[in-house]
Amino acid sequence: MALIAGIPIPLRHLRASETNPRRCFIDLTTKVPVSSTLAAADLCLSWSRRSCCIHLKTKASISEEAYTEEAETKVKFPASLTVPGCSSTLFLLGTGFREKVFAIIGVKVYAAGFYANPSIFTLLAAWKGRSAAEIQQDSSIFNTIFNAPSEKSLHIVLVRDVDGKTFWDALDEAVSPRIASRSLVDESALSKFRSVFQERSLKKGTSIFMTWLGTTKMLISISSNSMPSTPEETIESSNVTFALFDVFLGDKPVSHTLKASVSNGVDEALK
Prior knowledge:
25% of the residues lie in helices and 32% in strands.
């Protein structure tokens, strides 16, 4: 039995590559317990009609083949990545998009991908067997993901030019109502959060990473044309960090497509 991304694969389903000793194949002509969580093994996948080629990687690089495309915006998200400030590689659980309505016309503003450390699945065993629809409606599973002592990150990719103040105002409009009574710590955290975006022009293609290191601390990283190398700001407030998580994966998310996709990702991972 081989263990790949925490999934036991019977050895009879594996065959070695004749040309590359660091490559093997999973035979898909019979049923094999393979799901999207194969990405959790720091490997990239090449799919053909009858097999899944696994390229084992020694560095945190990303294959051109290891992407998921968000359907509406066509933004491609890597299956795994290393986010500034994180100690481990994170893996994509789902994608979606944010749309704002202007004069009754819906305008797509950004695509988003939610990443997590695969260790969270050890905490979600109680939900095994639930459908994606049931998972999506169960707030307790998302609270468990938030409270898990592992890193998580939201990767936002703008699909149009946006003024930094406009972006923050829209985000604050969703975050602030979720904080019932602000403390001085919360006010300080929101001020830092705001300062990252004020007086800033955010061009189409800009990447924004909002990364939870725990329940009380998160990092903000921004880059206009590549992966950011360092975090720009550290936000420390349990109320603010949870409010932001709730904005995207709570009971009333700003992107229903993202939450639905993450629910599907969790469902697949638990099978």
